[in-house]
Design brief:
The protein is α+β, with helices and mostly antiparallel strands. The protein contains ten helices and 16 strands. The strands form three sheets. An eight-stranded mixed beta sheet has the order 3-4-12-9-14-7-6-5. The longest helix is centred in the middle third of the chain and has 30 residues, at 135-164. It comes from Datura stramonium. InterPro entries: DIOX_N, IPNS-like_FE2OG_OXY, IPNS-like_sf, Iron_ascorbate_oxido_reductase, Oxoglu/Fe-dep_dioxygenase_dom.
Length: 369
């Protein structure tokens, strides 16, 4: 049984809804979302293509123990099913810790409650988060899961480097492996609420669990239980529902990687819709660079004749400060685009691999999905 947080119900009027639109059917989804076997000999090529076309793909043969995943999900549900008084002991999120409804500090609201942890040892926020119950077990499972996600994403980033033929091989993965990597981990819980969902549907709208956004970090990986809700936006604006798969992982290209690829890769816009009957739990690891890391188009990729640099260089710290001043759906990446009198020359692409390049996206808060 899922225990609903009373404050969530009281403030429903502030939670956004969205109109129904052309959402692709589940039968068509399988042919759109790339499924990549990390052990396949052509994994590098397939990952590059997925990053260009969707900025989103599913990975299998990831070698992450299922036992750790199920244990962590079980402990997360124990926490989220506690009374509101008990859960509040782990908050308020500022930005780390327990939070509900409010996403960030600028008025964004969703049908969600969450736990957010930093992996940056220079920050002491985790030490001040009190998890009722067996805190040592919970935090131990989080640490084990984060380590597995970091290793998997580093493997993916090294395959990207190999696929792009850039050296050194760890040019991207080193940012996540750096001891000062500003990565974070988030557990999201979307409680079911039949009454409120019916109100939304009767008006021809969907109840928003987490509003549309892109992830600002380098790369992120999400896994959820067997409840649907995650959607990604295609180039034509159509929202594609992502079928849940509790045994696989879905990877998002982040805004920082879009910048480093000089627009070759797409930072995918995505959102989460609430379910009227079932609880959804998602686990997201956001792979971020150190705060002092300079983010800009990689010089080794700027060799195409006539190609212009699309973004001004910035540090990850500068980007975070800029993003925190804006709202979930704001186009934050546009603040760092270079301005040209003439339209810049885009990187050349293989027409079979890429329909077009997207230069700007709505950039969401740091810790979502």
């Amino acid at each position: 049984m899922v225990v609903l947080s009373q404050p969530l119900v009281e403030n429903f009027s502030h939670i956004k809804t969205c109109k129904h639109n052309n959402t692709t059917s589940s039968d068509h989804t399988a042919s759109i979302i790339p499924v990549i076997d990390l052990l396949a000999p052509d994994a590098n090529t397939l990952i590059i293509k997925a990053c260009q076309e969707l900025g989103f793909f599913k990975v299998v043969n990831h070698d992450v123990p299922i036992d750790n995943i199920t244990k962590l999900e079980s402990e997360a549900l124990k926490f989220f099913n506690m009374s509101q008084i008990e859960k509040d002991k782990a908050g308020p999120a500022n930005p780390f810790g327990y939070g509900n409804k409010r996403i960030g500090s600028n008025g964004d609201v969703g049908w969600v409650e969450y736990l957010l942890f930093t992996t940056n040892p220079e920050l002491t926020h985790n030490k001040s988060i009190t998890i009722p119950g067996n805190s040592l077990l919970f935090l131990g499972l989080v640490k084990e899961y984060v380590s597995a996600m970091r290793n998997m994403l580093c493997m993916v980033l090294e395959k990207i480097a190999e696929g792009l033929k850039i050296e050194p091989k760890n040019v991207l993965s080193r940012m996540l492996r750096d001891e000062k990597s500003d990565s974070c981990f988030r557990l999201n819980h979307y409680p079911p609420c039949p009454e409120l969902q019916l109100q939304a549907l009767s008006s021809g709208r969907n109840l928003i669990g987490f509003g549309e956004h892109t992830d600002p970090q380098v790369i992120s990986v999400v896994r959820s239980n067997n409840t649907s809700g995650l959607q990604i936006s295609l180039r034509d604006g159509t929202w594609l529902s992502v079928p849940p798969d509790p045994y696989s992982f879905f990877i998002n290209v982040g805004d920082s990687l879009q910048v480093m690829s000089n627009g070759r890769f797409r930072s995918v816009r995505h959102r989460v819709l609430a379910d009227s009957l079932k609880s959804r739990v998602s686990m997201i690891y956001f792979g971020g660079p150190p705060l002092s890391e300079k983010i800009g188009p990689l010089s080794c990729l700027m060799e195409e004749p006539g190609e212009q640099i699309l973004y001004n260089e910035f540090t990850w710290s500068e980007y975070k400060k800029s993003a925190y001043k804006t709202r979930l759906g704001d186009n934050r990446l546009s603040l760092f685009e270079k301005k040209y009198n003439n339209k810049p020359t885009l990187p050349s692409t293989d027409d079979n691999n890429m329909v077009g390049l997207i230069l700007t996206h709505n950039l969401g808060k740091f810790h979502t999905t």
